[in-house]
Design brief:
about 70% helix; 7 helices; single chain; mainly alpha
Length: about 190
């Protein structure tokens, strides 16, 4: 069954990757580059600063930063344990897929997906009652994660599992914040 799932994953990747077109390559290469999202990160932190009292905003931001370190480390650990080759390094398919990036690290699961979905979900949980447009934050991880298929470096299951791990991590961190940090520091609940 695992072999069938991996074959389906590879076939879906080849199909989705083949939908790419040279006229959109620059857009997707730009989307997949994390530094290009800096204005979005600044916006996220400004919204926190405006929607929370200063002390509480600082604690929320620290919680998000700790989540970033956690999800990055956890993702890297799993990649080293699983050792799944990226599509661009898979000799079985790399001759006929579109490859716009050539990382050499392992593929499962996507760090772009896990980090973007964890950050977005945690920010959404913190801001959903204070900022009515918080759900729009999910535009970032959807584009960011899909870009990894477009540029030829992640399979769909890498993206899906990364997103699920990211969302679950965010819920765990949010629960830790609301059950332990906020009561201990006598902060309001988000």
């Amino acid at each position: 069954m695992l072999d069938e799932l991996l074959q389906w994953d590879q076939s879906l990747f080849v199909y989705l990757n083949s939908l790419g077109s040279p006229e959109y390559d620059l857009f997707w290469v730009t989307v997949t580059t994390i530094l290009n999202w800096t204005p979005v990160f600044i916006l996220f932190f400004l919204i926190i600063l405006f929607k929370y009292p200063k002390r509480e905003a600082a604690i929320v931001i620290v919680t998000v930063v700790v989540l970033i370190f956690f999800i990055t480390g956890f993702t890297d650990l799993i990649k080293e344990i699983v050792e799944r080759l990226r599509p661009n390094n898979n000799e079985e398919i790399n001759g006929f897929i579109r490859i716009l990036k050539r990382p050499t690290s392992y593929s499962f699961f996507s760090g772009h997906s896990s980090s973007s979905f964890s950050i977005t979900t945690l920010l959404f949980l913190f801001l959903r009652k204070r900022f009515q447009w918080a759900w729009l934050f999910y535009v970032w991880p959807l584009f960011f994660a899909y870009s990894r298929i477009y540029v030829g470096v992640h399979y769909p299951l890498d993206i899906i599992v990364g997103a699920l791990v990211g969302v679950l991590s965010a819920f765990i961190f949010f629960r830790f914040y609301t059950r332990i940090i906020a009561p201990y520091l006598k902060l309001s609940h988000p």
